[in-house]
Amino acid sequence: MSRQRCKQGGFTLLEAIVALSILAMAAMALYGWLNSNLLLLKRVDEVYQSVEAVESALEWVSILDPYLHPDGEQEIAGTLVTWRFVPVGGSLPAKDMHGNLSVNDAQLFRAEVEIRRGDKRLARFDVVQLGLQAKRRPEELVF
């Protein structure tokens, strides 16, 4: 008697395990790539938010008068901006573009600015700003 072997269609258990292993390795590589891209996007978003906060804070500090507001804090768009003006050198009489004495004295200030959102410090920077203070009355000036 001869025995005939039946050919079975389909995968053997070993072939199925190898195929699943290859699929799992490809999925892990894809997951790692996606995860690193998501982390990179999160960092880029944080930097973008920091840049926006610094631009807003710089704009705010630039309109402050160092004599009237030597230090303080202000909430701007969900961030807390803290500043302190420190005089740089002494004040000097200001002159106009023709070299004539003006009513103001001028002094440079260094503004120390810190930006926080909640407990996290987004940025800290210094900027130099000119302060003007009226010291003379217009009738005292000679043109």
What does this 3D model show about the protein?
There is one protein chain. The protein has one domain. About 35% of the residues lie in helices and about 40% in strands. The protein has a 4-stranded antiparallel beta sheet with strand order 1-2-3-4, with helices on one face. It is rod-shaped. The protein has one helix at about 15-60, and strands spanning about 70-75, 80-95, 100-115, 120-135.
Please give a quick description of this structure.
With 143 residues, the chain is α+β, with helices and mostly antiparallel strands. 35% of the residues lie in helices and 38% in strands.
| Uncertain residue ranges | none
| Number of self-contained structural domains | 1
Tally of contiguous helical segments: 1
Instruction: Give the C-alpha Rg.
Output: 34 Å
What is the 3D form?
rod-shaped
Number of strands: 4
Q: How widely separated are the two ends?
A: 132 Å
Task: Write down the overall mean pLDDT.
Answer: 88
Helix-strand pattern: HEEEE
Biggest beta sheet summary:
4 strands, antiparallel
What's the layout of helices and strands?
Layout: H1 13-62, E1 71-76, E2 79-95, E3 101-117, E4 120-134
Descriptive keywords:
143 residues, alpha+beta, four-stranded antiparallel beta sheet, 1 helix, 4 strands
